[in-house]
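WP5 quarterly update. Target: Uracil phosphoribosyltransferase. Source organism: Longimonas halophila. Length: 209 aa.
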Amino acid sequence: MDMLTVVDHPLLKRDLTILRDRTTAHGLFRKTVSDAAAILAYETLRSIPLAEVDIHTPLEPTTGYAIAQEVIVVPIMRAGLGMVDGFVRFVPEARVGHLGMQRDEDTHQPVDYYANIPDSVDRAEVFVVDPMLATGGSAISAITRLKEEGADRFTFACLVAAPEGVQALHEAHPNVQIVAATLDRELDENAFIRPGLGDAGDRIFGTPA
Ligand SMILES: O=P(O)(O)OC[C@H]1O[C@H](OP(=O)(O)OP(=O)(O)O)[C@H](O)[C@@H]1O
Ligand SMILES: O=c1cc[nH]c(=O)[nH]1
Ligand SMILES: [Mg+2]
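Structure tokens (predicted):
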């Protein structure tokens, strides 16, 4: 699956273990989602373009670098909110858009309930973040919506990806780079990722169904 980059880092392996463990309480779960997102952001931002800038050190003029591309981070709510801090800590000037989507428990299709997308999305590098890529329905719908607003440069960053979701997202939006902390085995009959980590949103916000 070369449309997918699985970031290989010992800290991510440790963090995923904390997240998968059913005994992890929501406070540590939320912190660990943020920490793991920061590692994904660090790796993903390697390709961000830079421009040279003239600055003065206390001793002499020199050349430095500034990020030359507008960055927009778009969490898919709720669970994607847990990854925003991990991304914007490295790019504090980034704008943050929001897309609210809730998967219908029976059909597994995403139902939209909120959208707020910055006007500059058409000239930005857009990082869509959500811990879980299961069937791919939510990610596909989010990126379709962002394309309607004019966006055309995307990375989709998640913690746990299912092979079914990677395939579906790639087929629907072949130009989207997918970055994950792990590629898990499969979806189960409820479209939950196995082994997975359960319902990411409920575990981040401490609201088990
Ligand atoms: O790839 P898919 O099959 O679309 O599934 C993944 C989606 O499901 C979860 O959200 P959920 O609907 O549980 O909403 P929540 O974030 O409010 O918990 C998850 O955070 C993704 O958004
Ligand atoms: O395993 C899954 C699938 C969808 N949403 C989740 O939060 N977890
Ligand atoms: Mg959920």
